Amino acid sequence: MTHIAFIFALVNDPGVRSISFHSEKISWKTHLAWFDRQIHENNPFYIVSFDDKPCGYVRMQRDPQLPKYEYILTIAVTAGHRKKGIATAALRAACKQALAEQSVRKIWAMVKKDNIASHRLFIKTFRKEAGTQIVNGHAATCFVYPDYLE
């Protein structure tokens, strides 16, 4: 399976869709256009592997409403690899690498209020909440890395 097909299957996983701010299924055509933009915009994008097989991804995307060197992060891990510490390790590694090698200075994550697993992940990794806001009609908790708020 190619990375494009793997990510397409993962983003359309019902568990992933249910915690997304856009919960509708993604078409193959939309996915291909999105993937092409990710490559051409040169945003940080990491495939997470376990036993040499893809099991998730961490990606960062520019938001024109944020300062130039700030990115929004998204992470997803396959159902069979959740609750094993893989997401925590992947998130830490991706953030450190993006800060060291890319033009990234600050990373934001927005998590739906009812997404308990992601709240735990980001508290563990980003250490504390950085406020709340409404994202596409959903209450969201904001997290920021590195922790400039102390």
From TrEMBL:
<dbReference type="Pfam" id="PF00583">
    <property type="entry name" value="Acetyltransf_1"/>
</dbReference>
<protein>
    <submittedName>
        <fullName>GNAT family N-acetyltransferase</fullName>
    </submittedName>
</protein>
<dbReference type="GO" id="GO:0016747">
    <property type="term" value="F:acyltransferase activity, transferring groups other than amino-acyl groups"/>
</dbReference>
<dbReference type="InterPro" id="IPR016181">
    <property type="entry name" value="Acyl_CoA_acyltransferase"/>
</dbReference>
<feature type="domain" description="N-acetyltransferase">
    <location>
        <begin position="1"/>
        <end position="150"/>
    </location>
</feature>
<dbReference type="InterPro" id="IPR000182">
    <property type="entry name" value="GNAT_dom"/>
</dbReference>
<keyword id="KW-0808">Transferase</keyword>
